[in-house]
Amino acid sequence: MPGSPLLADLIEALRCLPGVGGKSAQRMAFHLLERERTRGLKLAGVLREAMERIGNCTRCRNFSEEPVCALCANASRDRQVLCVVESPTDLAAIEQATGYRGQYFVLLGRLSPLDGLGPEELGLAQLSARLGEGEIEEMIIATNPTVEGEATAHYLAQLARAGGVKPTRLAHGVPLGGELEYVDRGTLAHAFGSRQALE
Amino acid sequence: MPGSPLLADLIEALRCLPGVGGKSAQRMAFHLLERERTRGLKLAGVLREAMERIGNCTRCRNFSEEPVCALCANASRDRQVLCVVESPTDLAAIEQATGYRGQYFVLLGRLSPLDGLGPEELGLAQLSARLGEGEIEEMIIATNPTVEGEATAHYLAQLARAGGVKPTRLAHGVPLGGELEYVDRGTLAHAFGSRQALE
Predict the structure, then answer these.
(1) What is the pLDDT of residue A53?
(2) CA B117, CA B181: separation in Å to the nearest integer?
(3) Which among A4, A128, A175, B139 has the fewest CB atoms less than 10 Å away?
């Protein structure tokens, strides 16, 4: 940036944010300097603290700055249902969209031997131990509907059955508000095959 | 954010960035935590330093962490031309698009009595003093082509003439690559009236 090496550094550093290129980074830097110094400083502080302190919950592997996250520590949540997701983002999506009040387990990945992600990396021993505690009755498998996600779901279902827990899977089908014409073939074929009787 | 109050704080703090709403802030936070911890920490440090240390150059009022910015301190730049712009963003745009190698003066605003922006707030006394130094021969007035920008340009032109400096203004007209059909009326009328003889 002409005139200020520090400003140039700031613009470069802002590019670590996803979807932010040179132009946006420049606009952000100028905006903060011209109008939002206080909030910019606040962001700097929170960002440092988050990068340094946020780890993973020892119980569910979700992001947490405490050894046990607020969701696991919340005594009012149902301890008989466990929802298994691939990532903290998926957990957040479910938490925001549904009224689910049970527990979670975050795999932090999916079974993908080529990427070196096996049962160990996904914490499946820990998950088995948790199923073995005897509290959980249903395990909702909410991995993504991709090839790897489905393989992981299959593996998880076996794990659940071995632990005497009932495995369930999110329903696949035509999205609400979607038009059949634009739904992909695989989804449409699945929805057609899994059609349900109307009462 | 479910599970981590610190993560919720980070998402909230990221919303101070322009064009970043709740969804983008969440995506940014997860991206940094999952993949870019080092660069996230770097950003936190640079951001704090920039917010605390970047002020304005005492000579041209551009952003600078030093009393005199790198542009003003650069002895190889032409001292006979001074380009006056409204904001550091405009300075950056000119610096990036043109081969201009002269000096700058940043108004940090435009004449706008209703907003309490008069000659004093724009540092015009300082600008006059600089014109009075006798080095400058041409003052390029690069305020925005808005009503307030034009009024400011008019005022600046008088100031230049009073200081014995030749004022010039960026050319207005049809943008390169634009189609006449889509150019606004005012611009088209101006371009038509200011038509130039071809050699």
Answers:
(1) 95
(2) 37
(3) A175
